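Researcher: I'd like a candidate sequence for this fold, 119 residues long. If you have to choose between options at a position, lean toward the conservative one.
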């Protein structure tokens, strides 16, 4: 999946069922920390488990996770957001990997020139 810095991107993930989702976690393995992109358990979001670089930039597409939709929206993408994202869902036991997405962030190479008055 490709995007540009400053844009918003939808990272899609679906659970086979929405019946009994106990845990949702999105990870980025190259963060090299115990924090998450997003961590949701027992109908509650755990902001303190979120990596600081994702604070106020990630949200579930559908808070009710209807139809098993556990996709997330990553806002204001930066070059540092490039990499692999993994979506896990837990029902009763250990969370299962549902999807893995590689996000490529490319600068368009365009730049804007603004002329100041008097130049």
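Model: Candidate sequence:
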């Amino acid at each position: 999946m490709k995007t540009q810095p400053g844009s918003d991107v939808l990272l899609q993930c679906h659970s086979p069922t929405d019946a009994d989702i106990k845990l949702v976690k999105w990870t980025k393995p190259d963060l090299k920390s115990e924090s998450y992109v997003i961590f949701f358990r027992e109908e509650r979001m755990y902001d303190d488990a979120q990596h600081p670089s994702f604070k106020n930039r990630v949200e579930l597409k559908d808070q009710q996770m209807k139809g098993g939709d556990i996709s997330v929206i990553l806002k204001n993408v930066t070059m540092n957001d490039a990499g692999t994202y993994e979506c896990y869902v837990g029902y009763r036991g250990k969370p299962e990997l549902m999807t893995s997405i590689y996000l490529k962030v490319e600068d368009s190479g365009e730049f804007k020139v603004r002329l100041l008055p008097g130049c």
